[in-house]
Amino acid sequence: MAKDGEKKTCGQVMDEWKEFIWNPRTHEFLGRTASSWGLILLFYLIFYIFLAGMFVLTMYVMLLTLDEYQPTYQDRLATPGMMIRPKLESLEITYNIENTESWDKYVQALDAFLTPYNNSQQVMNNKECTPDTYFVQEDSGEIRNNPKRSCQFNRTMLEECSGITDRDYGYRAGKPCILIKLNRVIGMLPGKDGKSPYVTCGAKKEDAANMGALVYYPPNGTFNLMYFPYYGKRAQVNYTQPLVAVKFMNATFNTDINVECKINSNTIAEPQSDRDKFAGRVSFKLRINEAKN
Ligand SMILES: *[C@@H]1O[C@H](CO)[C@@H](O)[C@H](O)[C@H]1NC(C)=O
Ligand SMILES: *[C@@H]1O[C@H](CO)[C@@H](O)[C@H](O)[C@H]1NC(C)=O
Ligand SMILES: *[C@@H]1O[C@H](CO)[C@@H](O)[C@H](O)[C@H]1NC(C)=O
Ligand SMILES: *[C@@H]1O[C@H](CO)[C@@H](O)[C@H](O)[C@H]1NC(C)=O
Ligand SMILES: *[C@@H]1O[C@H](CO)[C@@H](O)[C@H](O)[C@H]1NC(C)=O
Which of 158, 194, 221, 234 could form a disulfide with 162 if both were Cys (CB 3.0 to 4.6 A apart)? Predict the structure, then answer.
């Protein structure tokens, strides 16, 4: 087949290549004249400038429509998620009273989590608000009322679960405290008829007898209305999430206790499905071990 090609000598091939790269007769470089190359480069230059321009313009128009202080799109969660602290690898709190190391990690996690709640920090960053009413700070039209202030949530409001009077949050005594927080949802007004939403915890059927009595801090386990609405990280720079502490006063030792805590409010809908198992509630396992004699 390609017999013709084989007949060419090496020198001929080299010459053909050289002529292709630069042809002195026609003044062509790689088969094109200078003006042809110039036109191609010009075309691509204009083409890419046009593309870049389009990109910048689209970006600019999009950014114009964004609100600096509020996300344009937000999950319309009828039921905000809840979470517990301490939360290490899993939603499980298991420790042995006699083994300090087994519960000290929970104490340390709580210490770290509660540091910004220190009264001194709260007094420095936040305002003392009127309880039981929403702390509304609306913008008047285009005039931003920013930055917005936030209300104090003093660490001492958690009383026995503040880590101040009882430095190990009850873990050493087998009466551990668990903190519960409600995820932030911008603009959420969770109360109804001037009543604050509150947390209640219960055990799964077979564990009910083992859970024992609970004590809530602040009293009644309420998230006071004054911590709502939340206006977002940019607008409310010092926002402190309210907490509810649950103290297990008489949990049975050496047994698994499956606990579920949920938010009670007339405006936060009951979770409709199991689609989001953290909507308005949180489940965790508690097990306090004690060496048997
Ligand atoms: C917060 O309070 C705790 C307990 O009173 C204390 O140990 C800790 O040093 C305080 N932290 C800050 C940052 O003030
Ligand atoms: C928080 O604590 C400070 C100092 O301990 C106190 O002056 C302030 O009234 C407290 N705020 C609230 C909301 O209880
Ligand atoms: C946030 O806290 C800082 C002090 O840490 C304070 O100077 C500032 O005024 C606070 N901002 C608002 C909006 O409360
Ligand atoms: C707790 O709830 C009871 C009954 O609903 C009410 O009488 C009491 O005032 C509440 N306590 C606080 C501190 O809100
Ligand atoms: C603690 O729970 C046990 C059963 O688990 C019960 O017999 C006892 O009366 C409870 N103690 C208190 C103070 O509630």
Answer: 158
Give the C-alpha separation, 243 to 198, whole Å.
10
What pLDDT, in 10s, does the model give residues 81-139?
A: 899 999 988 899 999 999 999 999 999 999 999 999 999 999 999 999 999 999 999 88
Examine the domain organization and report whether 57 and 89 are in the same domain: no
- Residue 71, in any domain of the structure: no
Query: Could you tell me if residue 72 is inside a domain?
Result: no
CB distance 78 to 276 below 8 Å: no
| Statement to judge: residues 283 and 148 lie in one domain | yes
Tokens of 85: 């602290």
Q: How far is residue 182's CA from residue 169's CA, in Å, rounded to a whole number?
A: 21
Separation of CA 249 and ligand 5 centre (Å)? 9
Which of ligand 1's atoms lies nearest the C-alpha of 116? Answer: 13
Cβ neighbours for 24, distance < 8 A, ≥ 6 positions apart: none
Residues 204 and 272 occupy one common structural domain: yes
